[in-house]
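Q: what does this look like with thymidine-5'-diphosphate bound?
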Amino acid sequence: MPLEDCKVLDLPKIEDARGNLTFVEGMNHIPFDIKRVYYLYDVPGGSDRGAHAHKDLHQFMIAMSGSFDVVLDDGYNKKRFHLNRSYFGIYICPMMWRYLDNFSSGAVCMVMASAPYDESDYIRDYGDFRQAVGVAP
Ligand code: TYD
């Protein structure tokens, strides 16, 4: 799928003197039903995560605390996104190579996913990914 299908999506923000509140509804604020949530935390400085693609999985990533970058690559074009607030996130469509870097200290990356964990949905080799999207022979 092309990079333009991956977008930063703004979430509702209920501002309140007692603290702000944001919520996410599957098929409303994000274009899939949420079947799994996981999060990355205690990421050591200088670490990279990700570096894979998913065949069918849709994901939505939010910086719940701190900040980090998400680099998306459809095989033809690459784009870097900086996530640093908990009221927006990046929607990642299937067949998109991604890696995460530039984690601040205390960063927490929450990911909502359209399916339970399934190792067979991963493409972990960049050459295999380029072949799958038709860039490499
Ligand atoms: P992985 O997705 O490879 O993390 P990253 O690409 O950020 O380095 O997952 C790391 C490990 O965690 C891998 O052994 C699979 C396991 N895992 C689960 O068991 N369930 C999950 O929902 C996820 C995301 C990972």
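The chain has one domain: 3-12+32-119. The chain is about 5% helix and 40% strand.
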